[in-house]
Specification:
Number of strands: 4
Strand content: 15-25%
Order of helices and strands: EHEHHEEH
Distance between the termini: 11 Å
Structural class: alpha/beta
Radius of gyration: 14 Å
Shape: globular
Length: 134
Amino acid sequence: MSESKPSVIFVCVHNAGRSQMAAGYMTHLSQGRVEVRSAGSMPADQINPAAVEAMLEEGIDIRAEQPKVLTPEAVEASDAVITMGCGDACPYYPGKRYEDWKLEDPAGQGVEAVRPIRDDIRGRVEALLAELGA
């Protein structure tokens, strides 16, 4: 971990659903104690509206977020790299903590289908936050 505060990057293919919800939770739950990034190997044009709606139900507003392209620099600057189905597109740097979260892709699904994915992500983010000691 970095000497100041830990940093985490959440990575999925489109950076429009899973990784954005995870980043939203980590930002909200860590209250600034963790530096949070998210990115995608092939970013979408916009955030998944069902993911936005599901997060708003939790009181977390991710509407201002934009999908971002994954860069080696963003991975290198992060202590923990959490991937969600981005496959071999994720660069590997020795000394980084890597986790791959197997999560259903919310793309093209309604908010009813996204809620269980959101809830799964929240539990994983809470566990990661505890492990980071933040």
